[in-house]
Design goal:
This is TetR family transcriptional regulator. By secondary structure, this protein is an all-alpha fold. The chain is built from nine helices and no strands.
Length: 190
């Protein structure tokens, strides 16, 4: 059996994808470069050779996750440039739990002096992208992002999504009856 050699760019992407998964599971403090290396099927020294530090790897994962959100929003806006189409696009991203959990970990690390500037810039990029693509004013964009953050938290808590837990009444109230027909919400309460 022969192994296919990856290009440097492909290996970089493989490591960033593994980092997204690892950091989604353990956060910044709870994840090691060795865990990322194992997920990617490479040695830990190789990860350090490519990224230098765990901090640089974490920031690359945060940038990657932000880029995926921007990319999905741009694709949606190419068809229809309004907040509703971006919302539908975000619904698709809710299935990528590791990606969104990684972003939550990144934003939670925003107070760290070494991480904060980059993760704040990531959030700012998403905000500016929403405004640029839709023409939304500040209040509309703020409301859109607030709803998106709520959905992200609900997804991470498994209140919505394909592996959602049985809903308690408060969960259904929080989601809102108008959203009950969305596929990503998962099973209805019993």
């Amino acid at each position: 059996m022969t192994r296919t050699r990856l290009t440097a760019e492909e290996r970089h992407e493989q490591l960033v994808a593994a980092a997204v998964t690892a950091f989604a599971r353990g956060g910044y403090a709870g994840t090691t470069t060795d865990q990322v290396a194992r997920l990617a099927g490479v040695s830990q020294p190789y990860v350090i050779r490519l990224f230098g530090t765990k901090q640089a790897l974490f920031l690359a994962a945060a940038e990657h996750a932000t880029g995926r959100v921007e990319q999905r929003f741009r694709r949606a806006a190419a068809e229809q440039a309004d907040l509703e189409s971006l919302g539908i696009a975000y619904d698709d991203l809710l299935a990528e739990r590791d990606l969104l959990t990684m972003l939550l970990h990144a934003f939670a690390a925003g107070a760290d002096p070494a991480l904060g500037p980059t993760v704040r810039a990531c959030f700012g990029r998403i905000y500016r992208t929403v405004r640029e693509l839709t023409g939304a004013d500040e209040d509309e964009a703020r409301g859109f992002l607030a709803s998106g953050m709520l959905l992200t938290v609900l997804g991470v808590l498994q209140i919505i999504g394909p592996d959602a837990v049985a809903r308690e009444p408060w969960m259904t109230e929080l989601i809102g009856v108008h959203n009950e027909k969305k596929d990503w919400l998962g099973p209805a309460p019993e």
